[in-house]
Amino acid sequence: MEENKLNEESFETKVLKAKEILEKLSKNDITLSDSLKLYSEGLKELEFAQKLLEDAKIVFTTQNKA
User: Has residue 23 been placed in a domain?
Assistant: First the structure.
């Protein structure tokens, strides 16, 4: 259960980071180079958050079958 709470916090953190990156990308004064870096960083954050969701789904499904 402790591990699930850690994953939840990590998921929330990743989503918040991705949201912050999106806000930075929305600014007009950002350079193309910075935009590409932020875009790549945002994708990594969202991919990690997606993995956490998939892992949680596996745990949930496994526990419900038992």
Answer: yes
